Amino acid sequence: MMKTDVLVIGGGAAGAMAATTAARSGFDTTLVRQGYGATALSTGAVDLSEVAEWLRGIVTNAEMIHPTVDTVVADFLGLMAEANYAYVGSQDKDLILINAMGTVKSTHLVPETMAAGDLESIEGARLLFVGVQGYPDFDATYLSKSLRFLSDCGLVRTCFETASLEIEFPRVVHTANLSSFELAQLMDDEEVVLEMAKCVQEKADLNQYTHLALPPILGRDNSARALAILQDQTALCCFEVLSLPPSVPGFRMQRALDRAMKHRDVRIIHASVESFSESKGGIRSVRVVEKETEYVLDPGVVILASGKFIGGGIQRTDRLREPIFDLPVFVDSDCAPDAEMGTLLAERFVSEQRIFKAGLQVDERFHPVSPDGQVIYSNLLAAGAVLAGYDYSLGQGGLGVSMVSGHLCAQVALDQLGGKGVFV
Amino acid sequence: MTESQKNGLDGFRERYGPDNIIEYTPEESHLLHKFEWCINCGLCLAECVVLRNLVTNAMQYAGPRSIGTSLSRSTPDFWATSDTIYLCTMCGACEAICPAQVPIPEIVAMIRSKIPRQKDDLVPMAHRGLVHNLQESGNIYGQQIEPFAAVQRNPEYVLFVGCVGSYLERESVEHTLQLLERLGVNFTTIDELCCGGPTQVAGVPMVDSLAQHNLTAILSTGTSKVITPCPRCWATLSQHPAYAGKLEVQHVTQFLAGFDWKAMTDRVVTYHDPCELGRYRGEYDTVRATLRQVAPHFVEMPNSRETSVCCGAGGGLRGVQTRLSVQIARSRLEEAMKTGAEILVTECYSCLHNFYNARRSTDNIELYNLSEFLNVLMKENTLAD
Asked: Which helix or strand (DSSP H or E) is residue B196 part of?
């Protein structure tokens, strides 16, 4: 049996924030995950606007909400800087970013590669959208047109001009169905970035523009370097546009979180949780299996951060279930174990779908509770998308909720473990 | 006219007539259902080492996502076009990060196993010769291989070296033999043939005579305990139905776990996880525990353990596309050198050999299998005493 103070199940934004927070306080921390989930598939931009409202539904002390979010933001920015993937932003300023569908989105924390694209701060800018031949997920001509429309109609507050061009990407031999990851990995090579800058310069008179708007392909591992070279070569502000999944910035963020966890000595095990045992109202042991290697963990506190439908934390079959501990699943505040799926789904695709709010109900210390409000396991906490009451598909704050709840769970865990660290 | 060129209605009838209906075993049907877990998210494209190295290349590769979503339910003509399915290294990096845990290497193995039965002429040359070589010579190279001389009567263990070590990395094998002798292990080598494992990678039928020969040779020594340094041999001898649980097989890194090493190096050492030890079997910690004992300056590469990167030799790629295979090894070797490591340790002859293929004479890095490295260290320490 392997003793660990804090066992985190799930390695996305919620799990990573919980694990790094616990590990920093000197607690022996183990994180079990199986594959990547919704964090790696996200745009990489962190929304915070609905976090406070969501948190008011859980914690009683409303005054601590704003400072808590500030702490988490500072923590996250620190982690990302440590992992060499710098983020910028705060909860107090909305950033308005363009996405690859030709619409805009407000958000709060973004990687440095996206920062210059904040439409609120580029009044009078002249944007050149740069597409890549054979890369279908970024149509520069369409984006240019659609953004100019938004600007002309006053649908965004700032006025700007747009233009577009398409380049043949350096070194690419076949130009059909390129994926963003193929291009991003090429751009980890500085020579390729230089060649790309040259392609752009040859195709347009860059003096006419102030900004280059690029697909999010500025390197898988080395994006800061690629950004710096491009800006240096073109003498323009460059930024990446948000994209649909799979998005390189989301993947970069996941990898940076992984690096941050490794820096803080979080033990990461890629395995599935097969079973657990309980005693005295708590989780006693958790058995996880990775291929032929089995670990039996003896955790002080367990933080469940297993995600929702993509991560597999909540599964939908004929009913909704939480597969690891078989905890009761709620929709809104109703327990919904036998809920008719039809009642959870609306007929119109873009309307509110109740099913996205499904998840675990927790008390104010993030313990999952039963329908009568009783704590289920004294040392089990839950964070992130596995929680009920938040619609990540329409809402503004999926990653934000995950980070804040992950952080708070770690705080509760530390409190429960008595602040002593290493095998209390 | 080759199989794949038969056109028209006759060709169609011949190909899809009652005799040619694709049959799936219950296990294969079960696998097919697993492919349907794919949510088409495309994260696998970020981890695929082949895709990464092919974008600047005239070859095309559909990538792991297509293997799950479309190749698994299309016809043989499509499977083998442009060598697609044969470019996969079966390293499992995609599966490790897959949100739906789609077992892509298993899918590749299954698809490959269908091709020879239906359209033999679409099998790449490198794999086509395999069965012939195995039947004629008993090893994958179709060459005479000199057996190792460490033969003991009444041994406690049989050391099963495997083809790649016996043919391509003999110096490394000699060190492993010396190490076991040094440790006083009562072991023997045998007159071995290929374990048959490569047939699974190539998708060709198992050559049963190999397993029969090896089983007889091993069991006639009076023991059923086997140690092997080759991860593929380890998997085959312990898991393939042809050996059906008759042997007690340990990978050499597991065997070496219990020893107290009286040797040490001050140099910086890093470790490359062979896919078939790590991602295939979950063996990560045993080797590291041993290495940390002898190398206090042990460092990890940025991509290690579950997110380790294939050496480029996996899935038979070295035979099918040598240049690509070496290009992949080169990028991994550069990753190792960037950590400041002076020594790269692994424990798989195939990985080791591919790193030698990719190493340049000016590179300041030494390459070893773990058992070889330990022997070299102990030798140095003895000399120092």
From this structure: none
Which chain B residues are within 8 Å of A314, Cβ to Cβ? Answer: none
Domain segments of chain A as ranges: 2-85+252-416, 100-243
- Interface test mutation site (partner A, options B70, B253, B306, max chain A beta carbons within 10 A): B306
The SS3 assignment for A202 reads: helix
* pLDDT score recorded for residue A423: 47
The alpha-carbon gap from A202 to the nearest alpha carbon of chain B, in Å, equals 21
Q: Is B41 on the interface with A (CB under 8 A)?
A: yes
Contact between B111 and B83 under an 8 Å Cβ cutoff? The reply is no
For B104-120, b where at least 16 C-beta lie within 10 A, e where not — what string?
bbbbbbbbbbbbbebbe
Name the CATH superfamily, with its identifier, for domain A2-85+252-416: FAD/NAD(P)-binding domain (3.50.50.60)
Express each pLDDT in B253-283 by its tens digit.
999 998 999 899 999 999 999 999 999 999 9
- Listing DSSP states for A367-401 in one string gives -BB-TTS-BS-TTEEE-GGGBSS--TTTSS-HHHH
Contact A183 B55 (CB under 8 A): yes
DSSP annotation of A362: B
Size of interface A-B (CB pairs under 8 A): 90
Q: Which CATH class for the B258-384 domain? A: alpha beta
Q: Is A8 exposed, middle or buried (0-12, 13-18, 19+ CB in 10 A)?
A: buried
């036998």: which residue's tokens?
A338
Q: What is the ipTM of this complex?
A: 0.86
Name which of B51, B56, B99 is nearest A173 (Cβ-Cβ): B56
**Distance between CA atoms of B261 and B257, rounded to whole angstroms?**
10
What is the distance between the alpha carbons of residues A356 and B323, in angstroms, rounded to a whole number? 48
Please report the beta strands in chain B, taking only residues with DSSP state E, as ranges in sequence order.
157-159, 187-189, 225-228, 248-251, 269-271, 298-299, 343-346, 366-369
Dist CA A12 CA A386 (whole Å): 11
Residue B232 binned pLDDT confidence (cut-offs 50, 70, 90): very high
Q: What is the three-state SS of B80-107?
A: HHHHHHHHCCCCCHHHHHCCCCCCHHHH
Chain B nearest-CA distance from A85, in A, is 14
Per-domain boundaries in chain B: 3-123, 157-255, 258-384
- Give the pLDDT mean for A375-381: 97
Residue A290: closest CA among chain B residues belongs to which residue?
A: B282
Query: Which of B45, B55, B281 lies nearest to residue A186, judging by beta carbons?
Result: B55
**Is A187 within 8 Å of chain B by CB?**
no
pLDDT at site A420? 56
Q: Is the pLDDT of residue A376 over 80?
A: yes
Partners of B58 on chain A (C-beta within 8 Å) are 173-174
Q: Cβ distance A354 to A336 under 8 Å?
A: no
What CATH number does domain B157-255 carry, 3.40.50, 3.30.200, 3.40.190, 3.30.420? 3.40.50
Q: Does domain B3-123 have CATH number 3.40.710.10?
A: no
Cα–Cα distance measured from residue A188 to residue B231, given in angstroms and rounded to the nearest whole number: 32
pLDDT digits (tens, 9 = 90+) for B13-56: 766 666 666 677 888 888 888 888 888 888 999 999 998 888 77
* Burial bucket for residue B142 (CB in 10 Å: 0-12, 13-18, 19+): middle
Q: What are phi and psi of A92, to 5 degrees?
A: -90, -10
Q: What are the C-alpha distances in Å from B159 to residues B139, B189, B233, B247, B258? A: 17, 5, 11, 12, 18
Q: What is the pTM of this model?
A: 0.90
CB atoms within 10 A of CB A294: 12
A65 has a chain B CB within 8 A of its CB: no
Q: What is the mean pLDDT of chain B?
A: 89
Judged by a CB distance cut-off of 8 A, whether residue A246 touches chain B is yes
Q: Closest approach of chain B CAs to the CA of A292, in angstroms?
A: 5
Does the CB of B55 have a partner CB in chain A at under 8 Å? yes
